[in-house]
Design goal:
Number of helices: 2
Strand order of the largest sheet: 1-2
Oligomer: single chain
Strand content: 15-25%
Number of strands: 2
Structural class: alpha+beta
Distance between the termini: 27 Å
Radius of gyration: 12 Å
Largest sheet: 2 strands, parallel
Order of helices and strands: HEHE
């Protein structure tokens, strides 16, 4: 592997994504799934702590992932 590209994203209602009144695991998973599918190549998705259920939800609903990493789930 010559290089790695990291795509940090702000999920719904956090960071740069802005405020959102709609908030659920299903909506967050749909957001992340759309993002990883838009990259156009398989990605490794990492979930840290409370993001682990979100990563597992996305992994169960897309073929756009090469691997999943769960840290302190």
């Amino acid at each position: 592997m010559e290089h790695v590209t990291c795509y940090p994203l702000s999920t719904r209602g956090k960071g740069l994504s802005g405020a959102s009144e709609e908030f659920s695991l299903e909506l967050l998973a749909a957001d992340v799934r759309s993002f990883v599918e838009s990259i156009g190549e398989p990605v490794v998705l990492m979930g840290w702590s409370s993001a682990s259920p979100l990563v597992m939800e996305v992994a169960a609903s897309t073929d756009a992932l090469a691997a999943v990493v769960l840290f302190e789930p």
